[in-house]
Design brief:
Strand content: over 45%
Low-confidence stretches: none
Structural class: mainly beta
Oligomer: single chain
Shape: globular
Mean pLDDT: 94
Helix content: under 10%
Distance between the termini: 40 Å
Length: 133
């Protein structure tokens, strides 16, 4: 079973940057899968931030982070990244990485379903990001 572990969260001022990492316990990049970053604040639903299809590297973003966040992967290190620039106070949240539950739907399925919590079968424990104004 895949295990995921996020790191890289912290406290920054508005306009600053952070890079989150998501290390996987297994070699999940041998099969093309949809991997995503979500975030959640207390009392709100978990929302999709960005995703990548590991087969072809296609990326997807929420409108609120387009142009500021970049999702990437390092297959050799079994690690997913989220580079976050120009951070805003509204980016404050717990950030989670997740990997698609089988059966894997392919790139077009990832494009259509990447922001749906129910499509993902394994989650990390989260890393806190706090942005002050």
């Amino acid at each position: 079973q895949v295990q995921l572990k996020e790191s890289g969260g912290g406290s920054v001022q508005a306009g600053g940057s952070l890079r989150l990492s998501c290390a996987s316990s297994g070699d999940i990049y041998t099969s093309s899968r949809c991997m995503a970053w979500f975030r959640q604040t207390p009392g709100k639903e978990r929302e999709g931030v960005a995703a990548i299809h590991t087969g072809g590297g296609e990326t997807y973003y929420a409108d609120s982070v387009k142009g500021r966040f970049t999702v990437s992967q390092d297959n050799a290190k079994n690690t997913l990244y989220l580079q976050m620039n120009s951070l805003k106070p509204e980016d404050t949240a717990m950030y989670y990485c997740a990997v698609e539950a089988p059966p894997y739907g392919g790139a077009r399925y990832c494009a259509a379903r990447w922001s749906k919590v129910g499509e993902f079968g394994a989650w990390g424990q989260g890393t806190q990001v706090s942005v002050s104004s």
